[in-house]
Amino acid sequence: MRVEHLAIDGSIITVEADADLSTRISTTGWAIVPSLMRAHPFAVYPAGYTASVEKAVRRNNAITRKAVEDYDLKGGKLRVAEVRMATATGGFRDLTVGAWEGKSGCLTTSMVGTERERLIEVFDTLQFSERSAGVAIDSPITPQPREPQVIKEIPGLGVLNIQPAIHSTLQGIPRMRGLATNTGELFRIREGSNALIFVSPTSVVRIDPLTEADSREMLAMTQSLRVEWSPRSNR
User: Fold this and answer.
1) Do the strands 12-16 and 2-6 form a parallel or antiparallel pair, or are they unpaired?
2) Residues 6 or more apart in contact with residue 199 via CB below 8 angstroms
3) How many angstroms separate the CA atoms of 218 and 173, rounded?
4) Which residues are CB-neighbours of 167 under 8 A, at least 6 positions away?
5) Cα atoms in the 13 Å half-sphere on the side-chain side of 136
6) 128 and 138 in contact (C-beta within 8 Å)?
7) Which residues contact 38 (CB under 8 A, 6 or more apart)?
8) Reduced to 3 states, what is the DSSP secondary structure of residue 70?
9) pLDDT for 38-63, tens place per residue?
10) Higher pLDDT, 69 or 148
11) Whole-number Å distance between alpha carbons of 116 and 68
């Protein structure tokens, strides 16, 4: 089976394997926001994710400090809420959470404190666009402090954290040769762990096994695995 996914920076991620690849993805990255004049973290989820955010807030016993408000923005609906979260030390932390919902995806971020107007300005000045495969940020994406990534679950294999094969992501790869597969190399993260690193010419993929995963089945599936990260500028 072969599928294509849209990364947060507009790159196309191609995944091919002898497995069920029908699961959807989430993608994250840091983008330069004009109104902040610095990089800020964002995540993109499938359309309808705002309902999941509201459930998560309630599940984590967060207190909504101010009513959720919706704004028409850039052809979609921006939903903003100020919440108070309990911390592990017994105190509280105030967050302003925003989610822009379109027809094909949901772009989200948050800011510490009660920053409703500032968060609206973040979405207003950030350049992003909606496509059939999801939402991509058109403002500059930076690999620091964290590279863009795509997260996808493949039944029988695990949860894949996919990043581009650039200098920063390749630094942690052993210099010795890994186990050869049809399209790349495979490394074990550490002794006693079933987590794997798959490296292809264009991608670095961490594979975290699901609880019920069989290690022999995982290794067999990686032989057919192909993951290609095609940057927007290469298309």
Assistant:
1) antiparallel
2) 165, 170, 173, 178, 184, 185, 186, 187, 205
3) 20
4) none
5) 15
6) yes
7) 32
8) strand
9) 999 999 999 988 877 666 666 655 56
10) 148
11) 10
